[in-house]
Design a protein that fits this description.
151 residues, Rossmann fold, five-stranded parallel sheet, 4 helices, 5 strands, 34% helix, UspA, Rossmann-like_a/b/a_fold, Universal_stress_UspA
Amino acid sequence: MKHIFCFFMSAEKIMVCLDGSKNSLRGLDAAILFAKQSDAMILGVHSDTSFSAFSAVRTPILPEEKWTNEVRELIHVAKKKVEKNKIKFEGIVIGGHTSGIDLTTFANNPANKIDQIVIGSRGMGFPKELFFGSTSNFVLHKAKAPVTIVK
């Protein structure tokens, strides 16, 4: 793991965006470090874009019985990793149209009380998002909470 050097403000709830990529799991590692510093809980959020019939503005929380086996395993792995570090974890899957809009809408909802967002960047977008990736770039610019991008 690369060393993470940053100033981190106190947080109670850290949202980490999970898509199963190596960089999202690196983001989870960073969120664990931040949570240890501030005694925060981690909210692992996965955006399932296969439910395009739902409005991305609503970003409904999908019940566990609607999760795919792959998503269920992703949340399980994240939960084990976080709880191994004695940090409270909650896994959530939201449905919508695009991950960036879904994650930002969820994070910006005052009812969810997100203090910090951590997202891994795969850098796959082109050309504007060449450095940060389209989803992480969107979240960085549209989220109200501070965002940490992990590469």
